[in-house]
């Protein structure tokens, strides 16, 4: 009877500590992002994490979240460590830390493949998490280092999903590029922001979709493109 009670306690403790989602937030700080646009990204991302739907989803999945700043080759850094989203206060504190996270680099190229590489490596620190997602946002195509598609086989083997937020600032159709070359995995999708002014609304839509359990079960879609803003 006593052993049975101990076993039940250990089982319940294991279930309580299980992590259903590990989420990497990979933010573009390349040369095409000016100081004001960097601020829009960080403030918008922080506010999206405070959203009730997102916060509830993170809490219910006992999620772990980290932040990576990325730009050109060899310039990718995990600036906020993996943090357990186990209370609303912890989520709010992590959002505050994102707002306070100082930009490391300026005026460098766009090495999306290396951003993926660091993101993949970072999951070694959260082996307990069932679902692993990389959230990449950016305003340009990869133009330095290994192409993001070169990591697709590795991502498939590790069962890592890559979703993307394309910040459209010209006529290069970044949304299509991210769909063809970046996203991978079951239910992977591209969200579109029509310029940095649309970023806060777009990152909110994106986080609501990828943090909920419904997102993990949704079929793969090509893109989610809102109406263009004037």
Account of the 3D structure:
By secondary structure, this protein is of the alpha/beta class. It has one domain (22-217): 3-Layer(aba) Sandwich (Rossmann fold), CATH 3.40.50.410. Helices cover 43% and strands 21% of the residues. The chain contains nine helices and six strands; from the N terminus they run H-E-H-H-E-E-H-H-E-H-E-H-E-H-H. The protein has a six-stranded mixed beta sheet, with helices on both faces. Helix 2 (35-50) runs antiparallel to helix 4 (88-100) and helix 3 (52-60) packs parallel to helix 8 (199-211). The longest helix is centred in the first third of the chain and has 16 residues, at 2-17.
The CATH topology annotation reads as Rossmann fold
| Mean pLDDT over the residues | 87
Distance between the termini: 69 Å
Please state the second-level CATH architecture: 3-Layer(aba) Sandwich
Pattern of helices and strands: HEHHEEHHEHEHEHH
Helix content: 40-55%
């Amino acid at each position: 009877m006593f052993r049975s009670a101990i076993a039940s306690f250990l089982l319940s403790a294991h279930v309580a500590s299980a992590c259903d989602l590990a989420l990497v937030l990979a933010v573009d700080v390349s040369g095409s992002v000016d100081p004001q646009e960097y601020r829009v990204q960080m403030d918008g991302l922080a506010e999206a994490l405070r959203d009730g739907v997102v916060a509830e989803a993170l809490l219910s999945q006992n999620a772990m979240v980290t932040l990576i700043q990325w730009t050109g080759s060899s310039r990718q850094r995990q600036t906020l460590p993996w943090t357990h989203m186990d209370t609303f206060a912890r989520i709010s504190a992590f959002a505050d830390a994102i707002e306070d996270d100082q930009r490391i680099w300026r005026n460098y190229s766009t090495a999306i493949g290396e951003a993926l590489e660091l993101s993949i490596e970072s999951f070694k620190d959260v082996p307990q998490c069932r679902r692993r997602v990389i959230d990449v946002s950016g305003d340009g195509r990869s133009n330095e280092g290994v192409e993001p598609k070169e990591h697709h086989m590795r991502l498939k083997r590790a069962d890592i999903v890559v979703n993307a937020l394309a910040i459209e600032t010209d006529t290069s159709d970044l949304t299509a590029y991210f769909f063809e070359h970046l996203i991978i995995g079951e239910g992977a999708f591209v969200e579109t922001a029509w310029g940095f002014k649309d970023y806060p609304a777009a990152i909110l839509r994106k986080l609501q979709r990828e943090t909920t359990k419904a997102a993990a079960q949704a079929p793969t879609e090509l893109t989610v493109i809102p109406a263009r803003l004037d």
